[in-house]
Design goal:
Elements lengths: L1 H9 L3 H24 L1 H27 L15 H6 L8 H24 L13
Helix pairs in contact: 2-3, 3-5
This protein binds fe (ii) ion.
Fe (ii) ion binds next to helix 3 and helix 5.
Main location: membrane
Family: Belongs to the alternative oxidase family.
Protein name: Alternative oxidase, mitochondrial
């Protein structure tokens, strides 16, 4: 959903979209094999990746909130429809609200992935589907 929101904002060229699909195909394939070899490592890796994402979105929010910053227009720019539907946001939500929702997602992904990476073999997944 993060990628779909970004795509709706930028409306990139067909070449760019194909490059994104290609990169995702390569990553999913390599990550899938890595997961078969060492799932704990993959969850830890994603946990750290998500931590970096939280920092990045925090920096983005700081840039949005700067009165003369390069991203100040996101204080008032309307959120894309796809974001409003997915996160069940108010119709007058802004891009700043979208970044807050995305950062909350990333923080949740961080906790889930570090939790799964820390599970012992005799422990069960503590998360139910959708949690
Ligand atoms: Fe994430």
């Amino acid at each position: 959903m993060h990628l779909l929101t970004a795509l709706q904002l930028k409306e990139p060229s067909l070449l760019f979209r194909l490059a994104v699909i290609g990169a995702q195909g390569v990553f999913v394939t390599l990550f899938g094999f890595s997961y078969i070899i060492n799932a704990k490592f993959c969850h830890r890796f994603v946990g750290y990746l998500e931590e970096e994402a939280v920092k990045t979105y925090t920096k983005c929010l700081e840039d949005i909130d700067k009165p003369d910053g390069p991203m100040k227009h996101w204080q008032t720019q309307a959120a894309p429809d796809v974001a409003i539907r997915y996160w069940k946001m108010k119709p007058d939500s802004t891009m700043r609200d979208v970044i807050l929702a995305i950062r909350a997602d990333e923080a949740h992904h961080r906790i889930v992935n570090h939790s799964l990476a820390s599970l012992r073999k005799d422990e069960f997944n503590p998360y139910k589907p959708g949690q």
